[in-house]
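Researcher: Please generate the 3D structure of the following complex. Treat every line as part of one assembly.
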Amino acid sequence: MALPSFSTLAQHRSLVPATSAQSGRLERGALWSTLADVCALLRIPMPVRDEAVELLFQHRRIKQGQYVMRIGESFNALYVVKCGFLKTQMLDSEGNERVLAFPMQGDVLGSDGIYQGRYSAEVVALSDCEVIVLRCSQLKNSALEQVVLHAISREIMQEHANTVALTALHSDAKLARFLVMQSQRHAALGYSAKSFLLRMTRRDIGSHLGLTLETVSRGISALAAAGTISVDQRHIEILDSEVLGALQTPGNMRTATKPRAKSTRTTTVSKGMLPHSAPMQARLFQQTALAA
Amino acid sequence: MALPSFSTLAQHRSLVPATSAQSGRLERGALWSTLADVCALLRIPMPVRDEAVELLFQHRRIKQGQYVMRIGESFNALYVVKCGFLKTQMLDSEGNERVLAFPMQGDVLGSDGIYQGRYSAEVVALSDCEVIVLRCSQLKNSALEQVVLHAISREIMQEHANTVALTALHSDAKLARFLVMQSQRHAALGYSAKSFLLRMTRRDIGSHLGLTLETVSRGISALAAAGTISVDQRHIEILDSEVLGALQTPGNMRTATKPRAKSTRTTTVSKGMLPHSAPMQARLFQQTALAA
DNA sequence: CGTCCTATTGACAATCCTCAAGGTGCGTGG
DNA sequence: CCACGCACCTTGAGGATTGTCAATAGGACG
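Model: Done. Output below.
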């Protein structure tokens, strides 16, 4: 069982929806994954604890349009996406839905519920999906706990950095960035980086980027007209990744602080107070804290 | 020692910069805080472990304009703001600075370094400050570790939610939201909610909100002209908090998904698969995981 | 085959960025 | 103490971007 269909998936064609890959063992009429399976899916090395308790985590199939979880439900499990494509959204203070992310294979769902004990976002399947259920009771003090916490912290950091970066860009740059990220994420799963299918609506993209669907549509049309990409409905083909990459951070949008100089009496603070070769301490704390 | 100067501070006038409140014990020529001090500052109950090891955490003074940490420095400590006002910023892919947050009393600095083992943001003091140094070696497996992790997860969740919410608003709403949050944060520390001093420049505000400094300036002027606030340099007085609060989410900016209906075959999934009174499990996992 | 959702495109208006020109406050050095 | 420089703030005018409203067309699905 060791590594799951990871290397297998790495050869797939891009347009075949990654529906229900059939790894995991069949037992009691359902599919289950081992600790090793989940770790591989999360791309985090398996802890070497010899307590070979062989924990098994049940799979759950989600049909397109169905919800993995709803806002307000009490937090009792985390989920790891085994395959398929989803959308995470929350309600802002007005009651409108705002799209937070588009999770896919290897992403963790439900981490927003840890803190409040209640999910603050909902996750809906944009294609038929399969997720692995990690119940709290299973995670608590298990070998998986640190692994999952590591994955969560990685995701939150990346997503937040991405959200911040988006704030200062204008529509074309946002769009280019979104497409590049989609491309990279597809590539990371072994699909084509040049050709992929957007599973979400223009409106979803707009909500995620802070644009209207018309602006998204126009932006995509403009990129296509410029020959940077080719569009057929939701099928995207990247023709010039150079140009697309360059578009991510075009002009200024003078929204940033520019100076980058003058540090009033910065003397030797940074080197004076905490020198002491610390990488090891950092690593140690990391072990215990948010990483694995 | 118990609760620090918390209740004392709660009576201060708003314009007096909260510089170097003098709690903490003096030892070896420096100020130190106990576990109880730090927990109170973080507004998190102190763990009841009877290992009364009496850990002491050293204070560090930061003069206005000095840096608490720089981008790229290796991660070896977290900091809790004892008093003063600061600014956190990172460099985007272009090399421009982007302001992430304006930390104040009780906030944690440096959590962005946990994951990479290296700080990805820098923190500069906007006023004379005092921070409490939590070295990794002290935190590791200590009673404080869970407390700090809880505080960090709380901060990250709030900051991310705030960042996401900002994305869809237009300038006036962003500005109103910013002012309301500043007001609330000041109030939470015992200062006046109606009258406070902005320690950051218009440019910093703009960078934080994704606007230019001119737009910020115009927005503030407009609010003042409307009688909602009164402005004198960086001194802000809120005259009509009703109006200001209402401005936070004005028109639509049709950026959100609106439908809010039609769940294709949602049948009984959410209630069918994971009912089981889970709050207790959630609480347990919470204990072990990110909370205290 | 009709309906609904989605996407595209156009025209127009509002917002916001850009460039530019003062003005104010503060620290530094003469 | 005053002059000067420098950052910060304000305000204006013009233009680019983007939101809004509206009309149309294609596709999915029952």
